[in-house]
Inverse folding.
């Protein structure tokens, strides 16, 4: 094994790749520009939606109620709703989003309340339309409040204490650490993004260094030099791995910066929003380093597998058509980790990519299962070694190198 | 020195089954001599030369390059070998100097030795004007010179040229022919393949006529003329190949 030759190949491939626009874009430009753009863009979208929702006064239709002036007046006074005159085809108007919801007031509603007789208020919404459900919710909130006040009034009239209705209080307390709450949203997304970027960062160099060389006719040139094929493939592999890790590290750094930037820009809106919306604001450096360490064998696996597959192709285009389906093979286990309730166990720890994604999620939420972390690292290393071995074997096969 | 003993290559083809691309080819070429492998397209020239260059391994038979066996000592065989064909392209994103340096380093040259040789070669081939230009921006002639510098940087004893003039214009082809002649004068062992008769007549000390993977006839131009009873190499080639086809049929 000659480290010198591997180093010579690596240095040359590095020079070569740094001059290749496609590689530069996928390795450096995408993580540096895309992630801040996505974070800021998403933040902007969320805040503008929030603002719009605040301003938006949904039109609702009141059906009936002509004989209940008290309720009519109270509804008309509600600042969060705008009451429009009744129409026969209210259901169609809701469907067409001309109005957001409708409410049917029963005959003699005010009088029924005063007499303490039963009545039924009906609210109409279009389920799955979020705006309609919000408007319906506001109507419902008003009537529930009215019901509560009516109960209180009737109890007071009969001199009965409120505690009869609420004999005791129930309250829920959070014991999860701070980072567990705010990390949950980011923790699920981050490893998935980093794993995906590891793959896309390795893709173009892997194709360029194998099928690309065949296409340009330089494969034959380099194979007639003295360098051993094993040294050649290892040098190439190290370059692809560098690109993969560079993309992942740049992505993480870029994420960290853009999350801070977003936190500053949207500070005001975020303060109002729920904790889940506070995207990766509280990620710790130690967690990031642990995740990068866990991702390392995955990057090796991707780099070696992509090299082996791309080498089989005769041209750039052919290699791309082999690798595109691989994207889906990688995305599926990575996405599976986003499904709530999918939890690590001994069997899942053996599934490459999914296990790394799952354990990284745990790490970001502040939980370190060291036995899982080490098992997953070891199993990923085994997969990575198999892929690297396959890549080296592929380079020794002349029917692959000179496929006609 | 190149010696081939019963070189055979069988490819597995999905449609045609086992194909004997090269079948029992034996010849030898001494230092300071040029051996020409003459054959039509698909005759087995490229496969033979790729086996000599250790790109492909023979199914059976053996060969040695500069005394090193191509199957058991492929790295040493390549260390003493320069291989040039129109298929051996340059790395477009490297400059001419970087390209030649890369191959020099892979051949184990120390930096000092490498740069001494590189300067000498670049001066001799008149490459200094474009030495720092990227290979993708070079003209055909410049690319050719860069390729020549690439095969000479480690000063190999054996040169293998696989159809080196195919697709080149007259001037570029002449440059290659004179380069081959120069190699012979410097005492290198040269083997090259072609289907251009005039190049063979001009250059070769010995000629091998290859057809369907078999070496049909071999010898100096005079020996081939005597054997076929014809003067013109093209006539000789057609006669020998025609006889072989008749025997096969």
């Amino acid at each position: 094994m000659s480290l010198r030759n591997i180093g010579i190949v690596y240095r040359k491939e590095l020079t070569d790749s740094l001059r290749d626009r496609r590689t530069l874009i996928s390795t450096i430009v995408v993580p540096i520009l895309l992630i801040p753009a996505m974070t800021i863009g998403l933040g902007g979208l969320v805040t503008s939606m929030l603002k719009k929702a605040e301003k938006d006064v949904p039109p609702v239709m009141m059906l009936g109620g002509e004989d209940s002036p008290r309720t009519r007046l109270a509804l008309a006074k509600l600042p969060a709703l705008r009451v429009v005159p009744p129409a026969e085809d209210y259901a169609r108007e809701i469907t067409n989003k001309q109005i957001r919801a409708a409410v049917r007031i029963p005959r003699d509603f005010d009088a029924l309340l005063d007499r303490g007789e039963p009545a039924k208020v009906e609210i109409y919404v279009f389920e799955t339309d979020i705006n309609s459900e919000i408007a319906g919710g506001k109507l419902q909130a008003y009537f529930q409040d009215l019901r509560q006040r009516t109960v209180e009034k009737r109890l007071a009239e009969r001199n009965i204490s409120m505690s009869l209705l609420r004999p005791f209080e129930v309250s829920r307390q959070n014991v999860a650490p701070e980072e567990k709450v705010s990390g949950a949203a980011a923790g699920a997304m981050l490893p998935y993004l980093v794993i995906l970027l590891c793959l896309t960062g390795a893709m173009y160099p892997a194709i360029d260094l194998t099928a690309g060389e065949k296409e340009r006719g330089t494969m034959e040139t380099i194979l007639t030099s003295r360098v051993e094929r094993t040294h050649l493939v290892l040098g190439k592999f190290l370059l692809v791995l560098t690109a993969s890790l560079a993309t992942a590290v740049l992505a993480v750094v870029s994420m960290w910066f853009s999350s801070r930037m977003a936190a500053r820009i949207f500070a005001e809106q975020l303060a109002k929003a729920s904790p889940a919306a506070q995207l990766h604001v509280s990620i710790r450096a130690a967690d990031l380093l642990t995740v990068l360490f866990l991702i390392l064998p995955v990057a090796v696996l991707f780099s070696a597998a992509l090299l082996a597959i791309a080498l089989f192709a005769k041209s750039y285009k052919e290699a791309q058509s082999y690798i595109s389906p691989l994207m889906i093979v990688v995305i599926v286990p990575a996405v599976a980790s986003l499904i709530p309730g999918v939890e690590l166990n001994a069997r899942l720890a053996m599934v490459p990519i999914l296990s790394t994604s799952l354990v990284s999620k745990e790490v970001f939420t502040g939980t370190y299962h060291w036995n899982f972390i080490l098992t997953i690292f070891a199993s990923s290393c085994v997969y990575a070694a198999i892929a690297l071995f396959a890549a080296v074997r592929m380079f020794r096969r002349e029917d692959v190198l000179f496929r006609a | 020195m190149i010696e081939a003993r019963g070189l055979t290559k069988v490819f597995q083809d999905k449609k045609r089954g086992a194909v004997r691309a090269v079948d029992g080819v034996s010849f030898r070429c001494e230092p300071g001599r040029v051996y020409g492998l003459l054959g039509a397209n698909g005759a087995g020239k490229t496969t033979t030369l790729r086996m000599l260059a250790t790109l492909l391994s023979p199914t059976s038979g053996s060969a040695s390059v500069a005394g090193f066996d191509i199957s058991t000592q492929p790295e040493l065989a390549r260390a003493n070998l320069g291989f040039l064909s129109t298929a051996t392209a340059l790395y477009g994103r490297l400059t001419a100097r970087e390209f030649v340096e890369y191959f020099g380093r892979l051949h184990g040259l120390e930096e000092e030795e490498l740069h001494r040789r590189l300067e000498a070669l670049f001066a001799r081939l008149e490459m200094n004007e474009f030495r720092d230009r990227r290979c993708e921006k070079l003209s055909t002639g410049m690319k050719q010179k860069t390729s020549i510098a690439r095969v000479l940087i480690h000063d190999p004893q054996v040169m293998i040229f696989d159809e080196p003039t195919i697709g080149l214009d007259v001037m570029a082809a002449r440059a290659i022919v004179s380069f081959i002649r120069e190699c012979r004068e410097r005492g290198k062992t040269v083997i090259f393949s072609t289907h251009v008769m005039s190049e063979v007549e001009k250059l070769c000390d010995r000629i091998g006529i290859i057809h369907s993977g078999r070496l049909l006839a071999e010898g100096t131009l005079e020996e081939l003329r005597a054997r076929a009873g014809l003067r013109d190499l093209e006539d000789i080639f057609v006669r020998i190949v025609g006889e072989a086809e008749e025997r096969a049929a």
Notes: The first strand of chain A starts at residue 59 and ends at 64. Chain A touches chain B through 23 residues (CB under 8 Å). The domain at 57-163 of chain A is CATH 3.40.1710.10 (abc type-2 transporter like fold). The two ends of chain A are 31 Å apart (CA to CA).
